[in-house]
Amino acid sequence: MAYDIFISYRRKGAGAGVAGELQSKLENLGYKVFLDVDKIGSGQFPDQIKHAIEECKDFLLVLSPGTLDRCVDEEDWVRREITMAMEFGKNIVGVGLQGFVMPEAEALPAPLQSLTTRQVFVWTHEYRAASFEKIAENLVSTKMKKKKNRQTMFFVLPVLLVLALVVVLLLPKKPAEEKVSIEEPKKEEVNLYVETQKFDFHANKAKKLLQTLPDANTFKKDFVLLVSNRKHFEQLMEGLAECDSALMLKGKYGNQIVDTYGVEATKKSLLELRQSYFDAIISDIDTMIKEGGAMFATQDLEMAKILALPEDKSLLDSKEAVIRPN
After folding, report:
1. Across-strand partners of 60?
2. What's the mean pLDDT when you consider all of the chain?
3. pLDDT tens digits along 116-129
4. Angle separating helix axes 263-290 and 298-307, nearest 10 degrees
5. Contact, 288 vs 300, CB < 8 A?
6. With 60 as the cut, is the pLDDT of residue 46 above it?
7. Does residue 39 surpass a pLDDT of 70?
8. Which residue has the higher pLDDT, 204 or 36?
């Protein structure tokens, strides 16, 4: 039996339930789906898995929180399934459950690092139908099915057109009435799927940037070392910009976009971290000025400028007037 779709998942946690639901929905649409819980027979487990992946067109990877953690083990089944799918050149479609965050490429084993460049579709309980529609639209099996339907229509459509023409010719003709046509203004078409993907990209990037930053206590302990490296401040401000981009889309489309990343919480954490960094730097500048070493506060001033918000401008101008007098 040749399968259209192979579903890979962790049996522990929410992944098993979502995998079963995906199988049911796909089979109701006529696809042949391999799910190990009910497709494994008495043969060798590795051979059956390998044959199923080799036969399928699409490889659905259900990503619940922690799914990829055990993939450091070369004997891990999920890792082996993903590796086989890559080797056979299958269409790999990620299904990200609530709370899942894709690790950085360097945190994954070398064979799996390309996963970070692949599309992961968010699956939410409240919007299962919309989530499933996105996933199905990106399956090779779906595209092949649509192509087959189009081929069928190619032969059926001429027949329908002839029948329609016969009906029109047989209907009694009415005198033509003069009508004034008024064109309605065209509404701007919105591709909600594309907009949701933009939101997910900005929200996920902001969350990852937050995770790379030293917390307030670490910053205070290693103040000199961290101030000498401006990348932390640039990443922090970049994270805030990504949050703003995501929130702009959320504000525009409201509940049509589901926030599984907690963008508002991420922005709040970034703002609190920015304030702690900024306050520590200003305090150091004040200490240098007080002790007569204003000339040595130049680097601190440059770092503070990176972190500055519009409301901080007057404060920085006053510090610069002391550090760099005319």
Report:
1. 7, 93
2. 84
3. 888 889 888 777 78
4. 160
5. yes
6. yes
7. no
8. 204
Domain ranges of the chain: 5-141, 193-323
What is the 3 state secondary structure string of the chain?
A: CCCCEEEECCCCCCHHHHHHHHHHHHHHCCCCEECHHHHCCCCCHHHHHHHHHHHCCEEEEEECCCCCHHHHCCCCHHHHHHHHHHHCCCEEEEEEECCCCCCCHHHCCHHHHHHHHCCEEEECCCCHHHHHHHHHHCCHHHHHHHHHHHHHHHHHHHHHHHHHHHHHHHCCCCCCCCCCCCCCCCCCCCCHHHHHHHHHHHHHHHHHHHHHCCCHHHHHHCHHHHHCCCHHHHHHHHHHHHHHHHHHHHHHHHHHCCCCCCHHHHHHHHHHHHHHHHHHHHHHHHHHHHCCCHHHHHHHHHHHHHHCCHHHHHHHHHHHHHHCCC
User: CA-CA distance, 55 to 48, in Å (whole number)?
Assistant: 11
* pLDDT of 140 strictly over 60: yes
Q: To the nearest 10°, the Cα dihedral for 258, 262, 266, 268? A: 100
Decide the pairing of beta strands 33-34 and 91-97. Answer: unpaired
- Rounded to an integer, the average pLDDT of 188-213 is 86
pLDDT at residue 42 in the model: 46
Res. 45 pLDDT band, cuts 50 70 90: low
Q: How far is residue 78's CA from residue 222's CA, in Å, rounded to a whole number? A: 40
CA distance 6 to 93: 10
| Residue 159 amino acid letter | V
Query: Which region holds residue 73: left if phi is over 0, alpha if psi is between -120 and 50, else beta?
Result: beta
More confident residue, 266 or 174: 266
pLDDT at 315 over 80: yes
In 3D space, the residue among 26, 139, 49 whose CA is nearest the CA of residue 91 turns out to be 139
Q: What is the CATH topology of the domain spanning 5-141?
A: Rossmann fold (3.40.50)
φ/ψ of residue 138, rounded to 5: -105, 15
